[in-house]
Specification:
The chain is mostly helical and 120 residues long. The chain contains six helices and no strands.
Length: 120
């Protein structure tokens, strides 16, 4: 079995952001998911990183964090899970933002990444 971490210390999801995007596009084109929840999740995360992720407010590099792979995996494949996702449009937005039953996971993820921003 291949290790989860590559020899250079990066995880496999960090190198396959393009494949995760292609998988999300496939699910969208087949009508299996709608883009409200993934785009809400990615947008909130990008906003938090842009505001708090740099050395000064509003100087964070959101693109580097968005393309790291793990967040896109969560946005396209976990937030759109059939068993937990709401069926109404506003329900999807609120669910992806985290207001329905837990703290916003995308916002919390952005704040957690703030502490590890030196790696990017």
């Amino acid at each position: 079995m291949a290790p989860a971490v590559r020899p250079d210390g990066r995880q496999h999801g960090e190198t396959s952001a393009l494949l995760i995007l292609l998988g999300g596009a496939y699910l969208y084109l087949k009508g299996m998911i709608r883009l409200r929840a993934p785009l809400t999740c990615l947008g909130l995360f990008a906003a938090v990183i842009w505001i708090f992720g740099g050395p000064a407010p509003f100087t964070g590099d959101a693109a580097a964090h968005l393309l790291s792979g793990g967040l896109m995996l969560a946005a396209f494949f976990m937030v759109t899970d059939y068993t937990t996702k709401p069926v109404t449009p506003w329900g999807e937005v609120l669910f992806a933002g985290g207001w329905e039953r837990s703290p916003p996971c995308c916002v919390c993820g952005g704040l957690i990444r703030r502490g590890s921003a030196s790696r990017f």
